[in-house]
Amino acid sequence: DAKTTQPNSMESNEEEPVHLPCNHSTISGTDYIHWYRQLPSQGPEYVIHGLTSNVNNRMASLAIAEDRKSSTLILHRATLRDAAVYYCTLSGGSNYKLTFGKGTLLTVNP
Amino acid sequence: DTEVTQTPKHLVMGMTNKKSLKCEQHMGHRAMYWYKQKAKKPPELMFVYSYEKLSINESVPSRFSPECPNSSLLNLHLHALQPEDSALYLCASSQVIRGMWGASGNTIYFGEGSWLTVV
């Protein structure tokens, strides 16, 4: 399974943009890039996913490098409710099994 | 309705007990999953059911026994567990697209989890 590397933790201020990086240098051509987040005492929550092109949704934007070896999750205006562990994950193989990496703990300061 | 409901939220059991964790979804998803999450670690896949048939068992010890009685329900039967099995157990579900479960262009929905403590 291809692996992802993320910083252990990041800090942001409320209402500022946050860029969460992820390296996945061994990604294969058919692997999707997914981001999930996990708030304290809750199950993981889907944020966004993409294959090759940049993606936007109401929660965030996903910027994928041209060689697909890295990606960045962008939260445009962080709120206190965005404080969570953010997992960059790859899904691939015959059934697109979702395998979680270690994640980045995002702290948002008021 | 985009909910996956898990019961109980908390369970304390002895090493000789038999208990079950339950999971329910009404999104019409035909793939359901059990993940295990230890404190400060990422979730780890345990089992996958697709169309009520076991598709994946990630070498999970037999003291964990999954069951999928119908397309909306998923159980995890627990017997003779060890203290190191204490963890958050997460249920999830997703569509099956072009015969494939998992997260291709697909979202996996997670429940809030059942906190299990083995004493």
Main sheet attributes: strand count, strand direction, barrel closure of chain B: 7 strands, mixed
User: What proportion of the residues of chain A form beta strands (DSSP E)?
Assistant: over 45%
Query: What's the total number of strands of chain A?
Result: 10
> Strand tally of chain B, please?
11
Instruction: Please bin the fraction of helical residues of chain A.
Output: under 10%
Distance between the termini of chain B: 36 Å
In brief:
The complex is a heterodimer of chains A (110) and B (119). Chain A has 110 residues and is an all-beta fold. Chain A contains no helices and ten strands.
Characterise this structure.
The complex is a heterodimer of chains A (110) and B (119). Chain A has 110 residues and is an all-beta fold. Chain A has no helices and ten strands. In chain A, strands 1, 3, 4, 8, 9 and 10 form a six-stranded mixed beta sheet that branches. Chain A has a four-stranded antiparallel beta sheet with strand order 2-7-6-5, with no helix packed on it. The radius of gyration of chain A is 13 Å and the shape is globular. The mean pLDDT of chain A is 92. Chain B is mainly β. In chain B, strands 2, 4, 5, 6, 9, 10 and 11 form a seven-stranded mixed beta sheet that branches. Chain B has a four-stranded antiparallel beta sheet with strand order 1-3-8-7, with no helix packed on it. The N and C termini of chain B lie far apart (36 Å). At the A-B interface, strand 3, strand 4, strand 8 and strand 9 of A face strand 5 and strand 10 of B.
